[in-house]
Amino acid sequence: MEQPTNTAYATRLTNISELNDYVGKELGLTEWMPMTQQRINTFADATEDFQWIHIDAERSATFSPYKKTVAHGFLVLSMASKISYDTFSIENVAMGVNYGLDKVRFPNATKSGSFFRGRVSLIECVEIPGGAKYKMGIVFELKGEEKPACVAEFIAIAYAGPGKKDQEAIKEATQKPKASDTVLLEKKQDHVAVVTLNKPDRYNAVTHELVTRLNEVIGEIRNDKEIRAVVITGAGKGFCAGADMDTFGISTPEDSREYITTVYQGLLRNFQTLKKPIIGAVNGTAAGVGASIALACDLRVMTPKSGILYAFVNIGLGPDGGASWLLTRQVGYSKAFEIAAEGKKIKAEECLELGLTNKIVEEGELLESAIEWAKTLAAKATIAIGITKEDLVHAMDNSLNDSIAYEAEKQIAAFESYDLVEGVAAFVEKRKANFIGK
Question: Which candidate, 4, 45, 49, 43, places its Cα nearest to that of 27?
Fold first, then answer.
């Protein structure tokens, strides 16, 4: 009997009809994912269930048979949609529907700090008018445990439509949108890219078009292995003036809330999850959500005329776009409240004292200095830089024990890299390492 693989993979089908060929077979396996305390807390908050979902580590250490917090079974089960998407897809699906849950068992506890993954197989598949009805089996495996965290069977329906290639052809035939020039991407030498917010007549104010283009650019950088470090700056006299005031009053409060939680959240997540260092070359002022963009960078360089301005309160708003989270973690609660509540510009010198910028350089040297710093980072082991970024972001919301477990898991990618072999060899041979970012 063929042994199941332990290497993550996914099945990609062209047509729904191909599903029949996989009945009784495995469809895919995800990477290991950490069951963090933050994940447990978020699920508890969302479900308002604090009786069966324990978020108090001290109480759990006293009363729980596991002596630590344990994930609710339905939390593990809630990952089924992500796991099914990560393990297989069908190009010509126009609409997929989660039809129902057939069976489920929770054989093992999922403790905080443990790692789990999803193994998906196809149990049965029946053709229906316009598509197929099929049943998937998902086993939520626990690392180091024989028993899984959860075993479940899901019924789903998929309806056929134009395939991916056909959809692209239709889109190409019906519209040829001009690429937006609100954000520019320029590749420099030595694996560095410069991203420029390019609306100088509006002080690079944030619009939907700018955010959309910035997300596209970050996506391009994410997939370009030749780019190993990034500099973000603004065209003209200012880095970013925040949200474009011309858009205020156009949407309802409910629409604005939805926009902030989806569009801004997606943008800041892209910054946070890019496994390459981002240096903000903050020319002039970074205000409002522009301050969020600046603080979302891993490092910042300013000139004496630069500054951070939490302008929200000045027009009767509270912070948004992650501004409260970013500022509090940089300077602590009291100073963050002072900056946000007073709405005064924090000049470069004070930014340096508070840790809101890493360097101050002379006027006219800002972009050049940031690029040179980016070149230095690009010459290092890119995978290790990415792991370092992931570790530090994770550590801000997790305990020491969870962070150690997370570090250990992420270190696997470094152990498998060329750059580790080169780095060790260079150390032994007492020479400078020649990292290639792989």
Answer: 4
